[in-house]
Amino acid sequence: MGTVALEPLAFSELPPEEMLRRSERLLARMRARRSTRHFSDRPVPRILIERAIQIACTAPSGANLQPWTFVVVTEPELKQQIRDAAEAEEKRSYEERMPQDWLDVLEPLGTDEHKPHLTTAPYLVVIFKHSTRETKSGARAPTYYASESVGIAAGLFITAVHDMGLVTLTHTPSPMGFLRELLDRPEHEKPYLLMPVGYPAEDAKVPVISKKSLDEVLIWR
Ligand code: IYR
Q1: Is 120 left (phi over 0), alpha (psi -120 to 50) or beta?
Q2: What confidence tens digit (pLDDT) does each residue in 132-190 have?
Q3: d(CA 4, CA 9)
Q4: Can you tell me the distance from the alpha carbon of 150 to that of 148, in angstroms, rounded to the nearest whole number?
Q5: Which of 39, 161, 180, 214 has the smallest CB count inside 10 Å?
Q6: Within its chain, how far is the Cα of 61 from the centroid?
Q7: Which one of 36, 96, 98, 106 would you pick to mutate in the ligand 1 pocket, going by the greatest count of ligand atoms within 8 A of its CB?
Q8: What is the phi-psi region of residue 43: left when phi exceeds 0, alpha when psi lies from -120 to 50, beta otherwise?
Q9: Does a cis peptide bond (omega within 30 degrees of 0) precede residue 99?
Q10: What is the C-alpha to C-alpha distance for residues 81 and 60, in angstroms, rounded to an integer?
């Protein structure tokens, strides 16, 4: 394998006050982001979803392997099948699989096995993580830091959706294997996150919760 060509980094330095201004603007914008379970069925232009995915795909990834696939579901019957399967798994999880300490920490958030947003939201975006990749010779080889890479891409997707004025919810029905089957993805693609995307319902609610303070999360050494 040859080395990749190098080019100069396109970088324009900003004045310090402009750096601070931008950081404060983005912080205020991101502090307004909330996950809601209450979606409107109002249509959203496809181009916005494509843009959010393009933004997600700017993420750094292990060896630049970009170990992700985004499947966007709009077909009502398929959304219904996904909802039915997710609710069946979630019912078992809430009733049998999740230990009491997990149920206790979720209780204030009011989550349960009912997932109406999976049929209400105009789009269900499912991110798949590639556990292996195809080499030039057609053999299969590992991917590297795939979870970290896909997690970063998901973070950028969530940021993009919020910044363009839509809402999403990171949903992780467990186990998620049914998504690979329903969406016809190959064995090496593992469902990573299921995200309904759309406008919030007019009466959308969110739990009253707060983020940790800087003091609680930051240690300078
Ligand atoms: N996957 C379940 C349970 C759940 C787990 C966590 I951690 C949450 O923050 C929220 C829900 C569900 O989607 O209901």
Answers
A1: alpha
A2: 999 999 999 999 999 999 999 999 999 999 999 999 999 998 899 999 999 999 999 99
A3: 14
A4: 6
A5: 214
A6: 15
A7: 106
A8: beta
A9: no
A10: 33
Verdict on whether the full-model pTM lies above 0.70: yes
Task: Note whether 70 and 126 are within 8 A (CB).
Answer: yes
Q: Which tokens hold the place of 94?
A: 């809430």
Residue pair 148/166 in contact (Cβ under 8 Å)? The answer is no
Which residue type does 165 have?
A: G
Token representation of residue 129: 């993580």
Residues 6+ apart with CB under 8 A from 195: 124, 125, 126, 127, 154, 157, 158, 161, 168, 169, 170, 171
162: left (phi over 0), alpha (psi -120 to 50) or beta: alpha
Q: How far is the CA of 142 from the centre of ligand 1 (A)?
A: 29
Residue 72, strand partner residues: 125
Return the structure tokens found at 30: 């991101």
Q: pLDDT band for 28, please (50, 70, 90 cuts).
A: very high
